[in-house]
Amino acid sequence: LCPSLPGVANALAAYEVHAAAAPARRGRNWYAVLGLPTDAITHDDIKKQYRRLCLVLHPDKNRSAAADGAFKLLQQAWEALSDRHPPGSTSASKPSRTEPRPTHAPRPRAPPS
Amino acid sequence: MGLVFVRCEAVVQRRGLPGRRAVSADLFRRGGRFILQPRLNSSVLGGDSWLSIVVKRGKTSRWCSDADIAIRSTTSKGKRMAEQFYTVASDSETTGEDKSQLSFPDVAIGIDIGTSKCSVAIWNGHQVELLKNTRNQKGMRSYVMFKDDTLSAGVTGGAAQESAHEERDILSGSAIFNMKRLIGRMDTDEVVQASKTLPFLVQTLGIGVRPFIAALVNNMWRSTTPEEVLAIFLLELKALVEMHLKHPVRNAVLTIPVAFSRFQQTRIERAFAMAGLHVLRLMPEPTAVALLYAQQQQQLMHDNMGSGIEKIALIFNMGAGYSDAAVAATAGGVSQIRALSGCTVGGEDILQNIMRHVLPNFDSLYDGHTVDRIKSMGLLRIATQDAIHKLANQESVDINIDLGNGQKVSKVLDHSEFEQVNRAIFEKCEKIIIQCLVDAKLEPEDINDVILVGGCSKIPRIRSLVLGLCKKEVSYKNIDALEAAVSGAAMEGAIASGVTDPSGSLDLLTIQATPMNLGIRADGNNFAAIIPRNTTVPARRDMLFTTTHDNQTEALIAVYEGEGEQAEDNHLLGYFKIAGIPPAPKGSVEISVCMDIDASNVLRVFAGVVKPQGPAIPPFIEVRMPTLDDGHGWCGQALAKMYGKTIDLAVLPKKLQP
After folding, report:
1. The domain at B109-280 falls in which architecture?
2. What is the ipTM of this complex?
């Protein structure tokens, strides 16, 4: 895909969320939806990544047809994970080794319609 | 003269699709404007948007483009009409598909229709600009004056040159105002009941149908509807914007009260469609203020989008008709709505309370709506309004007024008396703020800023009440109480139209939440919320239900919206039936009901049998809500009478769900 096409980065990010949310044998992997490692993360990490993805996936900012569904999945992931990692919990005994999945949009902005 | 109806066959074309269909419609003329409205039972109501119209009259049939209608109205009413744009008013004017197929070249304007005042703002390329009318006002009185065959809306304030005269004319019974309180409400509604003391005629039968509303023209009551009044007002507003921008306007972002039901939203959308405007987004008023706050915080801190420190703001908005509260978390230009709550009390209620207080036999005196009584009612209203405004800045105020017919009012009103009379209203305001904080799971100490907006935010008691609950000394300063909502709407209009600004001042986003629970009737008369209030939208939730009788083959899905635990305490949005459920013992069938709200706030309900599975299972049903038209007060009772409990559903307990 040509990266210079308008809106293609945001569209890709939306499809990535759909792909990551494909139901597996043990239910959906919400960590993958947010693009986070499964261990050693804090509430703040989740919140930061959630907010970043909100900007990329919200239908106001993302004209792709996949945006609506991706945003709903993101909400579900946020609700599931923020329950699992309440604020102030220190599950991060060691710094996370895996970097968060880079979202394709470096700086979120609305694509020209 | 007056209202001219032409019954016609209009051929409508679905936007983006080939093929035309004929529908019957009424072409009617009001004060030089033509409005085309489909007949109630014509097939337009289920469709999308409509572009072109052929009017067949008798044996002659000809294309009647928008320009055609405009030319004819030009000959009768002068140049003003030349840019009017006509569309068929349709209940389902906006669909998600529409938006993705078409790109709108123009930027949506922001409109704030207040119960008493209205304003409009545009994004002029680098900032938000509030438009002024010919009398240099930013806030225009929301009313439409009916006089012979001419109408004038408050946009131009055409009725009189001096504002004192204007106010008296508005209260003469010939003008309809407060349409925001009346629109989409049944005649059993207490807000409609309270509106009976207004100078124009509001007649109720108390059976759950729309109230009868009429304006006094030449000593005759001429009927109208809130939708129609709003449409006439919007046409003038649109003309004002088009005059300023010098190009046609098609899209608008509108701010609405939190307490507006979805049914009321469809009525508002209908009024916009009648005026040729497409509602791109409906924003609860405090969320528009939150967006403005997010922009100011972003500029203050030079944040990049999506980063930065989170700031929590509590926004309290109290206008003439409604009060709303919201808690918004703002970080780096993103404003996420954590909680919303609202109620239908406002300045109008305060005004009526004071009028009743200074004139104890108020209700009996103004029962008949005779011309004399309307006149003295108008005098009392002006005097009371004046006194309330003065009380914001002084300790006590004298009300001295001669109402005619030997009626005189002479009273000194001070703060403690004012607060005593309106105690119930202040309690309701307190309630929605507390609910907002509880829903957002926040303590008063977590709040960084308290933003007070709306006309009634100037009342000292309201200020001290809100600040007291949030344990703050002062409120947030940089926001204009009367212009914030419309500015936020114009900004959202630019963002939702895909405008970007090189300086980054539009790198903003509001993440909205649902103001009310959405669910269905289950377990007898209980209300099972499927999308609870304050859920982030776009949202999609589902829930499993089961049958309540052995071998039950049909199930009724009655969709409600509201806060009540009993289904009938809430607003009925619509209903449909799932038929062909395979016969089985009660409780063994699983029925999934899924609710979906998309980015443009359209609610869809999907329902069907998920267990047992197989080829004998009927397909899922998708319904766009609300499906009800007027008279919805009857529907719930009629359903109960017809079916009783024979096709009820029960919530399937969570532990049994996979």
Report:
1. 2-Layer Sandwich (3.30)
2. 0.76
